[in-house]
Amino acid sequence: MATFHFYLRDAEPVDVPTAVHLHIRWAGQRLVYPTGCKVVPRHWNATKEQVTGKAPTCPHCSPPPSDRVDADGRPFAVEAHRDINERLKVLQACAVGILDTFAREHNRAPSRNELRDALNSADGKATRDAPLDLLAFVQNFVDSKEGREHVDGSGSLHFTTVNRYVLTLELLKAYVAKRANRKTPPPVYFSEVDGSFVSGFTHFLTKGVNGKTYAANTVVKYSRTLRKFLRLAKEHREVGKEVNPEVFSKRYTLKEDPSEQVYLTAAELDAFYRLDLNAHPRLERARDLFIVGSWTGLRFGDLSRIQPEHIEGGRLRVRTSKTGKEVTIPLHPCIPAIMAKYGGRVPSGISNQKQNGYIKEAAAMVPALQVKTMEGRTKGGIRREVAKYKWERVTTHTARRSFASNCYRDGIPARTIMAVTGHRTEQAFMRYIRLTNDEHADIMAKSSLFTMPVLKAV
Questions:
Q1: Domain count, the chain
Q2: 356 φ/ψ sector (left φ>0, alpha ψ -120 to 50, else beta)
Q3: Are residues 274 and 238 in the same domain?
Q4: Is residue 403 within 8 Å of 293, Cβ to Cβ?
Q5: What's the pLDDT tens digit per position in 294-346?
């Protein structure tokens, strides 16, 4: 059972105003909450826990500022002792109501910080910068500078990263609303976010949201973003101690579904580049843009940003939009030839969606891409495989994957390629490499270890 008591911060000296605090004890916890009132100790009745006397005014005792006005719009006259006692009654009643609400709606007692934040909110005070409600915390992050810019101040985050934060928040709201069987999501305090919450979010995405099912790797992406939000909360000075460490358990770490995306070999890229598309200008522009991406490793959003000024000494130097870091790439012979066709620039003005459609249409004309391969994908928890022509599996991102795979296949060290692609770990980089067992064997066969002459034993 909760207990409530009002105490003076300093009982002496008796004629010096001191603050009145509300002490609350509940479920083994304790909170000292400032009431905003000040009284002189000689006017305080410790037994009744209120200000004594009936004087309408007191130059020493002061209730918190009030914005109350009468029917004529004039401020109420301050009656210090009466207003202080009324303030204390209202504050205690508010605390009782908050405890009852938690017991009724959450079937538990609030934490110390949750009760303080709820009192601040009910009292019209500004709550802490980082609220203890998961959804509010994530909303604050998404709206903040941290949610839009790189931590090192190197520039804005890539729009795909910002969109991922926003979409994860919307999916969390939908999950919380369904979990509570409500139309709108109720607050979810960090003390309620445990392993069951995290695994439930994964299950929610796997089964589908509003009729839309997500591929396994998309579920992994949003689940990892939730864990990122929880790590940010854990690192926060005020919120960190409220985060349940169980949410970081390896039991709830999802593994990506092995990607089966294709890449185009150097020979296939050459055949694609030599394909005569003069009769199809829109396909030619899309093809040329794809070829530039295949020999620079740049993301689609960075390709159209290439200017003649970025080229110097046979090398391309450009700052990527996603990482904000400058990369230096040697120019493949076909790139100057392509840029010459478009007045010294890279073909632009094509959206990602149109590029995907055009590039498939153009790739379908390459004889070498008519071979069929099996494509497997897990969606809605079900693994399916289907045979597709290789040209059907070509996308804008195939260009970047082709660059990484061809460079790796030619024996260029992974770290050197990563300096261009911007991958921070070899684990992330290796997911881009799409080599067969025979292609890996070809790389090894080039090593001097497999070509050195064998001395005949004497």
A1: 3
A2: alpha
A3: no
A4: yes
A5: 999 998 888 888 888 888 888 999 888 777 788 899 999 999 999 999 988 88
- Chain-centroid distance of CA 364 in Å reads 37
- pTM (predicted TM-score): 0.59
Q: Are 201 and 175 in contact, with CB atoms under 8 Å apart?
A: yes
Between the alpha carbon of residue 257 and those of residues 373, 392, 430, the distances in Å are: 18, 20, 14
Domain with 363, as residue range(s), is: 266-445
Q: Is residue 241 part of a domain?
A: yes
271 and 237 part of one domain: no
